[in-house]
Amino acid sequence: MKVLAIESSCDDTAAAVIHNGAVLSNIVTSQDDVHQIYGGVVPELASRAHMTAIAPTIQRALDDASATLDDIEGVGATCGPGLIGSLLVGLCTAKTIAYAKQIPFVGINHLEGHLLSVQLETAVAFPYVALLASGGHTSLYFARGFGSYELLGSTRDDAAGEAFDKVAKVLGMTYPGGRLVDELASKGDPTAHRFPRAKLKERKGRLPFDFSFSGIKTAVAFHVRDHATQPDQRADVAASFQEAVVDMLVTNAIGATQSVDAPTLVVAGGVSANSRLRQRILEEGSCQGIDVIIPPLRYCTDNAAMIGLAAERRLEAGQRDGLDLNATAVADLQHVAAP
Ligand code: KG4
Ligand code: ZN
Fold it and tell me: N or C: which end of the chain has fewer CB within 10 A?
């Protein structure tokens, strides 16, 4: 089945064409330049930028796949979680195409896309645990099979990428600063400062592998303020901060994988680009006999190919959504039904 997929949950406008699980095209129009001066995503500006970018992005995805809308047999779009105004642009466009062309439509949970993105490149057998770490979410899911996902832990406050971006700002870098912190950290000493690692006790309402990143973000901000960190000391701060975040991510991800006795751990989301995270999680996985798989970066960050993969599988299984399907800012993956 040839499927057109659209993703617009945050600040990237993305479209892809998928056919039998193969990616025929995968286009992402970034809004980084729109939000850079504000130091973070401005929801209203994001919606407007999606409005401008959506049609040309879809056209490029069709052109790259040597297809026209007449060749498309089904449409899928992210319906949540995300920024509501952003989601609506992609979702309404997808529904309009489905209506105009009289082809089936399905809404896809953004997190299911991230969780399946590894399958775009490698046929990874279920079950596996997935660490999703980006600017908007940080969570651990146990994927038992397609459409069967259990949340093992998630952040109680900031996402890991958000902490990277805020620390980058404190260190005087531009948004989004995760990659810049990573680069600066490579020149610093990760043992120079001991920033706090949050260890959340399991109790009612908490999951066994929950995260918290707001404490470390604040600790770094106070450190930089109180010690009037000089430019030549910033690399040590970046490296020590990064080490602490990576410690928390790796400890919980490996612990969660062991707790469900899964053979494989998949890492996705923009933070999986972090060089220290990649190194540490691969090392720790190999020590513990866990196969750690990190998809290529183009499938780790927000993209429509991952949405297309989920959409094609759901459409082929006969799932259809009505054109009254709405976008939802909060959408729990555990309640996504198997097709
Ligand atoms: O998945 P993504 O592209 O978009 C969403 O947030 O959904 O992730 C972007 C996040 C940003 O917070 C960015 O700073 C972070 O991923 N990031 C990194 C690195 N590259 C991107 N964080 C740490 N190290 C990196 N190398
Ligand atoms: Zn995402």
Answer: C
Q: Does residue 318 sit in the same domain as residue 271?
A: no
Counting the structural domains of the chain, the total is 2
Give the whole-angstrom CA distance, residue 181 versus residue 164: 7
Q: How far is the CA of 195 from the centre of ligand 2 (A)?
A: 27
Residues of the chain with pLDDT under 70: 228-229
Residues 200 and 289 in one domain: yes
> Are 158 and 196 in the same domain?
yes
Residues 131 and 149 in one domain: yes
Residue 168 CA to residue 164 CA, distance in Å, equals 6
Specify whether 187 is located in the same domain as 270: yes
| 142 & 274 share domain | yes
Å from CA of 136 to ligand 1 middle: 9
pLDDT value at residue 50:
98
**Of all protein residues, whose CA lies closest to atom 2 belonging to ligand 1?**
270
Alpha carbons 96 and 91: distance in angstroms, whole number: 9
Q: What is the CATH number of the domain that holds 136?
A: 3.30.420.40
Q: For the whole prediction, is pTM greater than 0.90? A: yes
Residue-by-residue DSSP string for 64-128: HTT--GGG--EEEEEEESS-HHHHHHHHHHHHHHHHHHT--EEEEEHHHHHHHGGGGTS-PPSPE
Cβ–ligand 1 contact at 10 (below 6 Å): yes
Tens digits of per-residue pLDDT, 41-82? 999 999 999 999 999 999 999 999 999 999 999 999 999 999
Q: Are residues 51 and 164 in the same domain?
A: no
Q: Is the CB of 270 under 6 A from ligand 1?
A: yes
182 lines ligand 1 (CB under 6 A): yes
